[in-house]
Amino acid sequence: MTESQPKPKTVADDKKVHGVVAEFTDVDSLLAACRRVRDAGYTKADAFTPFPVHGIDTALGIKPTILPWISLAAGLTGTTIALLMQISLNGQTELFEGIQYPYIISGKPFISLPAFIPVTFELTILLASFGTFFGMWALNGLPRFSNPMFTSPRFDRATDDTFFLFLDAKDSRFDEAGAKALLGELGGEFVEPVLEDDSSKVIPKGLLITLATVICLSSIPALAVLRMRVTKSGSPRFHIFPDMDFSPSKDAQQTTSLFADGRAMRPDVPGTVRRGEMDWDLNFKTGIDMDELASIDAPRAAQLVALQSDVAVDEEDEVAAEEPAVEEQTADEAATEEPAPAGETGEASENTSVAATADDTPWLTENPLELSEEALARGQQQFNIYCSVCHGMNGRGNGLVNRRAQEILATTWTPPSNMHDPTLYSDVYPDGKLFSTITNGVRKMPGYASQIKAKDRWAIVAYVRALQTSQDATLEDVPGSQRSKIEKEQADVQAKLKAAAEAEAAKAAEAADAE
Amino acid sequence: MSHKAVAIKPADDPAFQLPASLAGLSLPMIIGGIVALVGGAFFSNSAVGGRFGMSSYLVAYMYCLTLAIGSLFFVLIQHLSRAGWSVVVRRVAELMMIMVIPLALLFIPIAVSAYTGSLYVWSAEGYQAEHGIPSAIWEQKERWLNPNWFVARSLIYLTVWCGIAAWYYRGSQRQDETGEITITEKLQARSGPAVIAFSFCTSFAAFDWVMSLAPMWFSTMFGVYLFTGSILSAHCAICLFSFLLQRAGAMRDEVTVEHYHDLGKLIFGFICFWGYISFSQYMLIWYANIPEETHWFYTRSTNGWFNVSLVLMILHWGLPFAGTMSRHVRRRPWLISCWAAYILVLHLVDLYWIIIPEAGMGLGGAAGIIATLVCVIGMIALMLGLMLKLAAGTRVVPVRDPRLGESLAFENF
Predict the structure, then answer these.
(1) Which residue of A64, A72, A106 is in closest CB contact with B289?
(2) Residue B283, min C-alpha distance to chain A (Å)
(3) Looking at the domain assignment, is residue B319 inside a domain?
């Protein structure tokens, strides 16, 4: 205590009173006082003791904490979040359409609760712990760095040997004199007001500097990693997870000694149906109206069914049973009609002369694919990958392969068709036939069934039709809203061409004059 | 730490004696229990056939055994952790744990069945051929699962349990007379090794006596699973018996709301633990989907057992989990005792679900269920009769335990 120390504070100073505190020497007097304070109607009161005192909550009338409810709510939130997250990420539900990522894991269903439980359990526990921990903070008014009680010099003994009872000024019943009188009457010693803590609230500079330093230092590992990623080094790479970097799994096209055929990439098991392809019928897979075909050429239909069928045994039996009856009928038909070309009755994959011979196959005339912008874009992409090398990007039959073949005068080369040949238009060359050609190939062109999925082949068909239309389009095909724009562009281009031609003519004339 | 001074009654206070109304029940219960047990097993054998008779007996046996060894574990843990709160209810647990001695005698039919092949399929002739188990595997199995070695192991388990139980029971009884603090110190000092020995025996006994009903199935979790049910039901039984004793007039001032609250907390915790362990066992097997592992759960997800599995999930975990979560429930002795009784019933369903499917008779029908129930009731009655007989000659609270005062004054907050 030096001269620089301010005078002892009194209430007369214009400082705000936080409350009134009194000291008690033993637990029993404190508990008695607490009960009296509670009975006097004080709700905002608190007791400070050096050790836990049983029953002081009820004596002071402190209500049980709502912390369990916060924990429960946080825990249930965790449960809900975990389940919704996993269902939305894995599930194929109408509820979460648009963000679904159906991914089969060890053959379990998409919404597979047992697999979701560990994450659900963990998140429930995590959020319940957070809820409890931070809920406790919130209920205690944390983070608070100082309590006005600490301004009272005698209060240090609360952690040692003295009991304190405190009445808060925020209580509606509080008036300073009355509170002091009450505490004095209850046997409290050193009854005195506690003043609001008006010490500086500025965070010490040292703390800020330390914090800033810690934050800066914590970025070092991240910076080191970043630097390593962009610089070259002579020493071998550091592998944090060597077994993940050097996995024993095979890459594409590698061989293996594990299987008799040496292939590491296993082909589909016969009869495999890709997910989502179950309901595609035979028409979709062959491009042929099978019902129609069965009525005019039953053996071939049966053959196609057998070829495409996944449940081979059952259906073959069925077909075999039906066959005699159908055969008679077709025999009659065969007598009146032209015999089917040899290529047609063979296996579909050997069907190489579809376009050349008279063709009574009931091809599908309409693309079974639902036509949309995406389907066309997909068709364009697939066309550009697989078809454009020969047929050219615009379908005029002048792709790079063809050009090269012409250049070296390859003798066995058959030039690819021009897609814009009228014989390939949909009225003479139905969609189903085009699909079948892509699937099974024609002349030099191989079948693409093993490389392009059926759905994509149909998309290519659609794109080819769009290509054909585009090359033959008139202004009537353009939507009315854009016609004027195109007319204007057309006029611009023509004007430019005209100007260019005139300029050239003028130049030529000039040159002639100069001569 | 407490400011509350609780008077410790003198050791010969009538509050520590078993009420006469209960003591009189002892003899009728013992006789009725034996009759029901034997009758139930025979009825089960003749009415359902197959291995059902011995399976019913095993359900009854395991029910009482799990309660006894759960209580043994409770006592060991209280000494291991030097717990003060539990002193007033510890004698109830001690009376239950000492029942492993009569239960060791009741093991004889099971030991005999290992030779006759009337319970365990591995001891029956032709099991290997019937199920097409490769002989290389079966030879390995037989090195462990053969009647002589089985009975020898069982004797080890029973000896260890009975030894620990008897030693702790005697120590506690002697302290009642002398009040020596050194006895408590000795009991505490030995509790660590005792818990280790206990855990090994419990886990291996679960593998041998119950899991080997399906000899080709294995789960390293199974020992813990059975132990979980046993410690959960032991807490429930302690809670329920304390409540019933208080209702009958004993230890009225000693066991308070606080003790029920703590027992309730432990019951709640072990309900979670049971759910956690049983789900862990299920999920690993379900996920890996290896045929030899899944068949145990496959049996229990078909043929009527699926409903029992669902019942267990919802009624053994879900409902009591929600029901005992609240502090308000746990601080009402009659309410938490109701939940304890409820869990004890579900523990029986749990054991029925574990043991009976392997008898190969489906759910066993009404006759099988009734026969098993009669067996269980008979076994419980027999054990209760013996316990009451024992309790009548001693006290229901360890009256001179050095921590009795702490336990009496115990408060949760």
Answers:
(1) A106
(2) 6
(3) yes
Q: Is residue B6 part of a domain?
A: no
Residue of B nearest to A106 (CA): B287
Contact residues, chain B, for A107 at CB < 8 Å: 289
User: For residue B3, is it within any domain?
Assistant: no
Window 46-65 of A: residues touching B by CB (8 A cutoff) are: 51-55, 57, 64
Tokens (6 digits) for A486: 């195109």
Residue B65 CA to residue B231 CA, distance in Å, equals 11
Whether the Cβ atoms of residue A168 and residue A174 lie closer than 8 Å to each other: yes
Q: How confident is the model at residue B261 (pLDDT cuts 50, 70, 90)?
A: very high
Query: How many A×B Cβ pairs under 8 Å?
Result: 33
Q: Which residues of B touch A108 (CB under 8 A)?
A: 287
A60 min Cα distance to partner chain B (Å): 14
Give me chain A's average pLDDT, please. Answer: 77
Measured between CA atoms, how close is A137 to chain B, in angstroms? 20
pTM over 0.90: no
CA geometry: angle at B247 spanning B242 and B252, to 5°? 70
Answer yes or no: is the ipTM higher than 0.90.
no
Report in angstroms the alpha-carbon separations of A294 from A301, A310, A315, B207. 5, 19, 15, 64
Work out how many domains chain B is built from and give that number: 1
pLDDT digit string, tens, across residues A236-278: 877 888 888 888 888 888 888 888 888 888 887 877 777 777 6
Interface probe for A, chosen from B280, B287, B297, B411 (most Cβ of A below 10 Å), is B287
Share of chain A above pLDDT 90, in %: 12
Q: At A31, which helix (H) or strand (E)?
A: helix A27-39
**Closest CB from A54, A57, A118 relative to B2:** A54
For residue range B375-413, list pLDDT tens digits in order: 999 999 999 999 999 988 888 888 888 888 888 888 876
Q: Does a structural domain hold residue B134? A: no
| Contact call for A55 and B286, based on CB within 8 A | no
Which CATH number does A373-473 carry?
1.10.760.10
Per-residue pLDDT tens digits for B100-109: 999 999 999 9
* Contact status, residue B203 vs residue B166, Cβ threshold 8 Å: no
CA separation, residue A91 to residues A84, A85, A116, A286 (Å)? 10, 10, 11, 32
Print the domain residue range for B110: 22-125+140-402
CA of A126 vs chain B CAs: smallest distance (Å): 16
* Residue for token pair 């009731």: B377
